[in-house]
Write a structure and sequence with these properties.
Helix content: 10-25%
Distance between the termini: 51 Å
Mean pLDDT: 86
Number of strands: 9
Radius of gyration: 17 Å
Structural class: alpha+beta
Strand content: 35-45%
Largest sheet: 7 strands, mixed
């Protein structure tokens, strides 16, 4: 196996007593926008997977939050300046129907319209979906965490 970056192995993997297991780590970020019509969540339209939160695989030695912000910029063309508004939501175990498994590290962040910096070059189309409508696209814990943090307080 030729790996670009070293990976930690269990003793069994190191001694060839069991196959090497590599778990891919990805990151997602739920940007919640406060408008006069209520809360909306940002989604991107992936050409294969459909509507989903912006995100993707973190790069080697990249902190998951930095990866989430990088993916937000790349996929949605959106950035903002205050990292202190971003909160960890949960880990989501993903079993992809196309093959492969990974763990998503999910963050949430509520921004006012004037805090969102929109750049022209986005990889995917973006959609702001009302909080009530987006429940069917979000992991249950992410939806619950948004409700708990931004609606019930």
């Amino acid at each position: 196996m030729n790996l670009k970056y070293p990976i930690p192995l269990t003793f069994g993997e190191f001694e060839n007593n069991k196959p090497i297991t590599i778990v891919r780590i990805a990151t997602r970020i739920a940007i919640v926008k406060n408008t006069s019509n209520g809360l909306y969540v940002l989604f991107v339209k992936h050409p294969v997977k459909g509507l989903e939160l912006p995100g993707g695989c973190i790069e080697a030695f990249e902190h998951p939050l930095d990866g989430a912000l990088r993916e937000l910029q790349e996929e949605a063309g959106i950035s903002f300046n205050d990292k202190n508004k971003v909160f960890f939501s949960e880990f989501v175990i993903v079993v992809d129907n196309r093959g492969g498994n990974w763990i998503d590290v999910v963050y949430i962040c509520k921004l006012e319209q004037n805090e969102i910096i929109v750049n022209k070059n986005a990889e995917f189309e973006t959609y702001w979906i009302s909080l009530n409508e987006c429940k069917k696209f979000l992991p249950q814990n992410t939806f619950d965490n948004i409700i708990q943090r931004y609606v019930n307080n």
